Amino acid sequence: MKRLAILGASGHGKVVADAAGLVGWREVVFFDDAWPELTKNESWAVVGDTAALLEGVKGFDGVVVAIGNNRIRQLKQRELAASGAQIVSVIHPAAVISEHAAVGAGTVVFANAVLNACADIGEGCIVNTGAVVEHDCVLGEFAHVSPNSVLAGGAKVGPLAWIGACASVLQLIDVGEGAVVGMGAVVTKDVPSGITVVGNPARAFHST
After folding, report:
1. Along the chain (208 residues), what's the average pLDDT of each consecutive run of 10 residues?
2. List of long-range contacts for 107-113, beta carbons under 8 Å, 24+ apart
3. Residue 135 annotated among the catalytic residues of the structure
4. Is the C or the N end of the chain the one with fewer CB within 10 Å?
5. DSSP 3-64
6. Rounded CA gap, 174 and 187, in Å?
């Protein structure tokens, strides 16, 4: 593993870069659409924007998108894949991944996260620090499981969904495509696509 390009010079990107260094990527550089105004992300260089990365993807052994917004991450990863980029996953060495779990291309898994037996993680997902994805869970593409959240056995999270920090999803529950589960929520019933739920037990959120 030699050269890794990360698209998205954010705080999230810093965590991806840190994990990448720990698993053996020798050179890590960032691309971000705020370039050339933005030239550094902590100790890592920002060397171009999306267009520059698309033009130069062949010069990298791997590319990963480090953008928290699920839909933008999906758009950028698909654009890069279509250009011939080698989309890779980054898994922190302190994560616990069952040999029977599956992890899709472009997914990032951070320290102390757990993916148990037969968990199926789609492409472009974020499994954040300390999150637990139990046995037989399915995480749809470009979903985000936030820090210290828990998906109990057999739960299914749809594409582009967001599970908030410290939230819990009961076993065998389905969270629909693009749904949002608020921080600390306890989900005991299926969540339809595209809605936000909060609280314990989680209920649909209606802004006033």
Report:
1. 94 98 97 97 97 96 98 98 97 98 98 98 98 98 98 98 98 98 98 97 84
2. 108/15, 108/16, 108/19, 108/64, 108/66, 110/15, 110/19, 110/147, 111/19
3. yes
4. C
5. EEEEE--SHHHHHHHHHHHHTT-SEEEEE-TTTTT--EETTEEEEE-HHHHHHHGGG-SEEE
6. 9
Range 78-81, long-range pairs (CB < 8 A, 24+ positions): 79/50, 79/54, 80/7, 80/53, 80/54, 81/105
pTM, two decimals, is 0.96
Tokens at 197, concatenated: 């739920």
The pLDDT value given to residue 114: 98
Cβ proximity of 94 and 75 under 8 Å: no
49: left (phi over 0), alpha (psi -120 to 50) or beta: beta
Q: What's the token pair of residue 180?
A: 């949002």
Given 12, 92, 100, 135, the catalytic residue: 135
